[in-house]
Task: inverse folding
């Protein structure tokens, strides 16, 4: 399998299923050695097996991104075996529904650790080598909770807003040094088995396809540096916005 990322490493957190799995498949198709990372070993193994069956290069790394020591151990192992990732996609997500009176404050804290602090830990450990190389991409997947706080999203929206602002701060620091940082905001219901069950009468056009998101993330990671995007918004053509 050959492509534009031959010999490079792409690390995607939360890549056992859904859009994360779609992303590692695209990066593997383009020749990258992909690190399939998450905290559910069974789904990671299934995605890894699919990539290898298609001729791709990949490895599975079980890692809880809220555990800083585990993140360090995972990255050390990846660097020792294959070198520092050229592309990092922070796709792992912590979410919860409920208004500010209903939610357990610990849920908000947990989601902050997954969505925001994990981005900080990953970027702090990977950006220096990217800067030294004069190239690299750090991409975070988000959603419209990053720009608005609805009543039932009190345990989730604050952490996504903080995540977006952190990504912007990182972008302003490392962009002039050759590292592209982008925030991909998904304004849609992702086409997954459980979302289909939630909206059984919805048409195909109601959903956004994981594979389509993955293709756009790959594109963002390879934009010409004369025309980099930071805020990237994705939505189905029928979505009201």
Result:
């Amino acid at each position: 399998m050959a492509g534009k990322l031959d010999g490079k490493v792409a690390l995607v957190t939360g890549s056992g299923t859904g859009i994360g799995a779609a992303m590692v498949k695209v990066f593997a198709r383009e020749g990258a050695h992909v690190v399939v990372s998450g905290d559910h070993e069974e789904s990671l193994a299934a995605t890894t097996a699919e990539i290898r069956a298609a001729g791709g290069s990949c490895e599975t790394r079980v890692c809880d991104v809220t555990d800083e020591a585990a993140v360090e151990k995972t990255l050390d192992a990846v660097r020792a075996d294959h070198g520092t990732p050229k592309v990092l996609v922070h796709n792992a997500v912590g979410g919860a529904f409920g208004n500010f009176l209903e939610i357990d404050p610990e849920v908000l804290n947990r989601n902050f650790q997954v969505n925001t602090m994990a981005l900080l830990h990953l970027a702090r450990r990977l950006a220096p080598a990217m800067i030294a190389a004069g190239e690299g991409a750090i991409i975070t997947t988000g959603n419209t909770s990053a720009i608005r706080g609805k009543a039932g999203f009190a345990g989730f929206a604050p952490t996504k807003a903080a995540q977006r602002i952190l990504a912007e701060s990182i972008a302003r620091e490392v962009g002039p040094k050759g590292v592209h940082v982008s925030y991909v905001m998904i304004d849609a219901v992702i086409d997954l088995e459980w979302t289909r069950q939630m909206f059984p009468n919805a048409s195909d056009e109601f959903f956004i396809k994981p594979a389509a998101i993955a293709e756009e993330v790959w594109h963002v990671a390879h934009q010409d540096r004369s025309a980099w995007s930071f805020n990237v918004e994705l939505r189905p053509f029928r979505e009201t916005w």
